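LOG
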Amino acid sequence: MILADQKKIDEYTAKGYWGTKTLYDLFLENVRNKPTALAAVDPLNREAICSGAPQRFTYGQLQGKVEKLSAFLLKNGIRKDDIIGIQLPNTVEMLLTYLAILRIGAIATPFPVQYRKHEYRTLLNFTEAKAVITMTHILKHDTAKDFVDVKQEVSSLHTIFAWGDNLPEDAVSLDDLDMSHEDVQLANEICASNKNTANDIFTICWTSGTEGTPKGVPRTQNEWIISAYASVDAGAFTEDEVLLNTFPMVNMAGIAGMFVPWLLKNCTLIMHHPFDLPTFLKQIATERATYTLAPPALLNTMLNNEDILKSTDFSSMRAIGSGSTPLSPWMVKGWNEKFGISIINYFGSNEGATFISDPRDIPDAEQRANYFPRLGVRGLEWTTRIAHYFESKIVDTETGKTITKTGMPGEMRIKGASVFPGYWRQEDLNHEIFDEDGFFCTGDLFEIIEKDGEAKFYRFVGRTKEIIIRGGVNISPGEVEYLLQSHPKVADVSIVGLPDKLMGEKACACVVLKNADETLTIEEIIQYFKAHDYAIYKIPEYIHFLEELPRNPVGKIMKFHLKQLVMDSAEERQEA
């Protein structure tokens, strides 16, 4: 399925930004180049996450698994452009699934492992997904059974495929696939006849918005490749790289930061997630990882913990990518001084924003922690190739004029080869999110910073949107408010994010009760969310009671004022 207009394809192809090789072409090249090299490794603690012992595959072994899985999916009716829901932890099955979908030419819509029935039925219906690929259980959650339970509510959904023991009825097992020669031959013929291109949509990922329902972000293979160049160039990846992936492979960090760079560089990918610190540290040492991703809070904690620093072998590690919240200059400098490890600062989004600070372009640790190169601006040269593959500008949110002066915050807008074509099936919204010049309005506030006489840096200031980012996961206040508004004790509610040293932000429910004599506890809210099958991470950690919510003259809740009220009245909050 191609969503980009031909004019855009022709322009970016002529400029050399977009190529003709698909991601599956890259995989086949890797198989031919290094068939016996180690390609993928399961988490050491796999048995605590899902069924089966940890697995290790060479590129040749991985190809055999992928071809068998794709043949099985084709035998069960999956075809090019079919949309497949995926809920898998970071195990080798996630790689097998992505590669099989790429071979068939289907479209993957990956769900975070925290999603539950509410998200399943909403998003599967919205995309008209034909099938789901999952595990029988992920951690303590009976994943396959829940998908089977909602199947009758999704008219497009034909098949639930699952790996693992205790397969529920009406699900199809992916263990021990027994494919005949005829099945494999037919699959080869179907795949050969497919006209898969690098401009076909590969994924529809999900991003939370202030409107409530998550928005689908379709991205092509070429768009993912462009975004992946940022990690490849900033980390100076080679074919000897051992990438340790700690982020879920459902959005920008996991796909553009790990999966696609793995394909581009023909290296080794070690899987990890949900995060477990002892397993993470052991994987660094035993697998000789050279690069990983970690949130700022974790890097701060480890650097402050002498027991961790003394007991872990970091000698193989060259660089660590981090982001989602501001980095500490002390932390960036400390990892380099103690271990020679470069901390790379990332700012990205599913829609295609990709800003990155690495030691080559910004060698000073303090500057790298706080600033990003002004990528996509003519006249400024940077080492990463993506600097020339898109354009960026900052716009005054009141006047709509482009800001060229330093120290004046404005909305970041981007346009180019990494930027998505628009949200899935939301034409009205898509007319609003792109300006008259075709730039995507990110909703993120940046300012231009001058150093050494040159206005060559950007600094992230905040968000015009109300998204709460908890441990790198986006939470939509609107979605949480929508559910809590239906609680029988709640008259009015608003959700705000509060600063948190470990998680970045935590959610607080600001509640006006219908009856002042009643009470509402965090435990009641938790049970209410569970009863409505909402993902657990969306449950507010705090509750703050008010007689009324602060509103402006036109009735809009003043979120900033409300947030300040809550922060000033910590003793009035209940904490989960």
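LOG (cont.) second protein
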Amino acid sequence: MAGPINQARAKISKIFNGEPQSYTRFNLTQNVDGESSHVEVKLSGDGEEEMDGTEAGHGHPASTYRLPQRPLRPYRNVCYGALVVLLIFLAGYLIGYVTHRKPEASKLAETGPGACTTDQPDGNQEEGVIAVAPEPSLDWSDLTSMLQRSLLSSAFDNQLRNFAMDSHEAGSSGDEVLANKVLDIFKSLDMNPWIDEHYVQLQMPPPSNPNKVLFGSDEIGPTKGYLAYSAKGTKEGKVVYANYGQNEDLKYLRTAGLDLTEKIVLMRTGQISLAEKVANAAKFNASAVLIYTEPPFNSFDTSTDLYGHVHFGTGDPYTPGFPSFNHTQFPPAKSSGLPEILAQTITADMALKIHQKMGGSDAPEHFKGKLKGISKYRLGGDGDKMTVTVNNALVDTKIHNVFGVIKGFIDPDHYVVMGAQRDSFSKGYAKSTVGTCLLVELARAIAEMTKAGFRPRRSIVFASWSAGDYGSVGATEWLEGYLSSLDKKAFTYISLDGVVQGQTQFRASASPLLHSLLKDTLNELKTVSKYGDLFQFSSPRDFENTLETMRMEDGAYPFLAFSGIPSISFRFGSDRAYGYFGTALDNKANLDIATGQQLGNVCVSAAQVAGQMALRLVHDHILRLDVTSYTRIIRKHVVMINSRVNQLKHAGTMSAPLSPKWLMSAVGSYSRAADSVINEIQNSDLEDQEKCRTINNRIMRVEHNLLSQYVSPRDVPFRHIIFGTGDHTVSALTDHLKDLKEQVVGSDADLLRNQFALTTWTIQSCANDLAGDVWALDNEI
């Protein structure tokens, strides 16, 4: 109401003196000499106080105008008339404003910080009128409170019932049903959803010609389980027990005099991925691999089939390095990570029969497993002949990735991605169902926050992937499809796969750029989360103990090692590993037991971790990616390399000296560039949007610049020099230095020098880009 009054006052003032910045004061006084009354008009500037007792001749000359002592009557009547008209106009205007004022059509939110509401006396609101409220200002505590209120255990319980399915293998009708459920939810939240279709080759055993395993002439039971992307055919040979199939296990067998060439290697699950087990056996020239799951608990059904894949990579192995969109015609190609040997799973019951039949020398203590009914584990004798037949066939399959987006208001082309796989070989309750429910509930919560006033600076993309059980196929195909642009736009990936496996431990795998953000998030949640006691860190080492190395089977791995996008995955677990992945026992009953019947509450805590990290990344002016963290990581590797170089010098096995000087200089360049970014942030006006965007662009490029530019993404997909695989990595360089010192067959001094130079320039290039404009560089390398 103040607005109309001020306008009316200005109009009145302007009529009388043409100065809208002053007000008019009327004094009707009686002439002491008995003459006619007169009107005294006093003009005062805004804010000037009225002087008490002011009379004719005693006021301020600059602010008082006195009409003539003997005014004519017509003039006096005109003044009175004008005054009456103006007062009537003013009263009518104010009455009309009050009586015709419309209430707001709707409330942004009934409760919560930043809500803008107008209460009506009768509690009703008129329809058809949209109120434009001022943009609310929400601080960080407002956002975290809103998120916590939005995440409810009962909501997760409902979603878990909605998304639980016994059969939803990639490309199946069950997978499509779930995809449509996700799509419908994204539509209902106005998230502009879209779908990517991919045509990929998945491998499955034909129902009419199952895979077989024989010990001698006896078939060791039928099995429905299988390992996708195994080689096809039949192999016969001696069986050898190789524990977990790690490199050190296989080296022990060779040291013990057991040659694995053309042997069938028996392994148990654990320690490393199924694909890595098979790849290791292939390096030792084995012909086939059999893998079984030991019962992790007494309740484990030993007749349970095991499913998985053995592609030592991610994505469709028959379109390596390029996407599989819309039946695009590709040249014949296949991933170098496809095994050339047979691989098949067997049940624990079948493994027990094989162990009971095996002879040979006793296995070492650390090879002994947990199968009941075995008095001694043996490595295998000369008469232990087995036959393995694998008939898996490739099937052209259409899969769908489903996306929704909450767009940012300042930098909408920069986004954090949260994703979860939707498919599973079997029930996949912990592996995929829980993650999918977290995805849609976080989408709902954050979408509602935007309606209640939250204005994210950057966008959040929610992604539901298919064919995750075949090696992150859907996610990798998407990354390959947008390889040239994602590193400039997607600045973080948060994986929701397998986030709930228990309730007594918290573990995470992440890019070093995200370590500080994760730690800060857990510190904030330790007082509000039901599982905050898991986030109590009395020292830096306590936090470091929660961190694990990201493995290739991790859903976040291709984002980090293939695309150079800072990525994180985490899980709530227990002292005993959740041993049901890849089996039909990954169901609600077993996950309820693992979480102490508190599944809904653990889901809330997991969603709080993921959601609060995402909100922080899209809320702050500067991206919460700690560029200084890589200084310590890279320096740690360089210290090891320097130690190996010194050992090589003392051994005298190189004809020309090798100096780590330039590599150490590159590390120094990165350290200075990282420190300069921090200083620039501290000394910058963070309300300057262009300045913030420039700094953020430099920060976003760090992870991508640690992908080696000297190898092809088609031939070497995981190009990251820290987390990738191949000769370009710093770990390969370190190993090569050791091999050269010991003069191992295959070590090459010239190749070593190339590795040294390319590693140096990868780090230096990363430092140069982080430092800023080319004219700001001051490197003497």
